Hints:
- By secondary structure, the protein is α/β, with parallel strands linked by helices.
- It contains 15 helices and 13 strands.
- Helix content is 45%, strand content 15%.
Amino acid sequence: MNRADKNHMPASRSGRGFKPILWVLGVLITLVLGLRTWQILDARPKTITLPATSQSEDVPLLQKPHLSLDPVIGHRPRENYAMQLQAGVLGTAQTYGFMRKQDRFGLISADPLPSELTAPRILIVGDLNLMGLVPAEDNLSSLIQRALRGQEELETAVVLNAGCEGYSLYQSARRAASLAATLQPQLLVAVISTGDDFLELQDQKRPHVDDILLPQPPSQRKIPDASSNRRSKLGLPDNGLFWTGMNQAAWMSMNNQALDRLEAKTAYCLNLIALTASRQRAAALIVLLPSSDLLFPDLIASSGSKYAKEIIDSGVQAEWYQRVRKRIENEGLAYVDLEPAFRRYGQKDLYTQNHELGSAGHGIAARVLSERIAGLLLSRSRTR
Length: 384
């Protein structure tokens, strides 16, 4: 056959070989579009059914029966436990009593955890500031849930409070990882108590990350308690002020050469939180909670401790706060800094008498966070 004959072949013969190819392409396109549609539908928040129990063994701590031993995290809130507590308002003589309830997963809640959880679900981790020294209805988790449910498309939002007394940032990250597969959150929020969560990363008596960023169990070695020396040197009459801010500030002023390593450990924990969220196809949000000594230096001035005043005047705590915020930005993580809102409020009743977050502080934090959380949830649902 010459070239002219080829150019003048009947159309029916020339297109015959392409039909099977077009059919295969059509099938492939249909499969791809079907898979993508399934992925989009699968990504939508769903109601989930929870197991009747967490299936974790509860071994109460001797000195703190509201907490239980945990082989990975060190300790966690005891399950199905309630206790009567009393707290006071910083700067006043006012005190109040309240009941704190922990459900069958050790979550802080006024009501028992239902068998089914609607969506979207927001899992919040943190230390005692989140666990709460306030009535359940005043806790930021309850306030955020109430605010979210008042918005269109978020009427079934559930906020799950996994805060625990005595947690470092690393322990909060591990707590999130231990709960995420069961609770399947659409948003993971980590509240960082900036006055003590970082120093606790150095504590080898609890689960921690070592200097080469390897997870380690509690050390079995006898480790001297250096905090006693710092406490004696500071001479603060207010124990709460020491434990929630000045202990860490004093350590930083004495160990400036260790701050790079501490920042690396902080970044490790931030990335662990982000990784836990990504495994659930959830968003992550970091919250910076300022300590009372950062906002109210007059508390130090009135304490009579010259050494404590020198530390505050040096700005070591404030510089570290900014350094952490910059690191969060460099890691590309969404975050909320509560310091500006707290400074605008400007009253000491943000905190309790032992310098943990009080009812006013929970209220302001909830107003700021509910707006940001709603924005994150709605933007994710509308882009799916």
